[in-house]
From TrEMBL:
This is ACT domain-containing protein. SUPFAM superfamilies: ACT-like (SSF55021). Residues 2-67 form the DUF2241 domain. Pfam families: ACT_3.
């Protein structure tokens, strides 16, 4: 199944879910043995990974942006237009930073950990 591409259906079906834990961003040369990041991207400076704070602390990794991880449970098509702009604009208007990562099935939002509950409220307002 390729996912939903109708913006109205995407917004109505977002069903944001707050994943448990605090997540941080780190840059590494190689992914440490036994670590399964929730997101990775290869950049010129190294591999950016998103992992839970406890793991980053235990490994003594330099990390930043303590984040809450919110999953939009709607199955969004990778070529859908407007969903990212919709939630990013709403969060920006509320003064909440958001780093969005698209998976093959869902969009994942990383917002400041201390703003996680307010971010969920903003997303609920978008849904209506």
């Amino acid at each position: 199944m390729s996912g939903i591409d109708d913006l109205e259906l995407l917004i109505q079906g977002m069903s944001p879910r707050l994943n448990e834990g605090c997540y941080v961003w780190a840059t590494v040369r190689t992914i440490p043995m036994g670590v399964t990041p929730v997101a990775t991207i290869v950049e010129d400076e190294g591999i950016s990974i998103v992992i839970d704070l406890a793991t980053a602390t235990n490994l003594r990794l330099v990390h930043e942006f303590p984040s809450a991880w919110i999953t939009l449970q709607v199955h969004s098509a990778l070529d859908a237009v407007g969903l990212t702009a919709t939630f990013a604009t709403a969060l920006a208007d509320a003064g909440i930073s958001c780093n969005a990562v698209a998976g093959a099935k869902h969009d994942h939002l990383f917002v400041p950990y201390d703003e996680r509950h307010r971010a969920l409220e903003v997303l609920a307002e978008v849904i209506g």
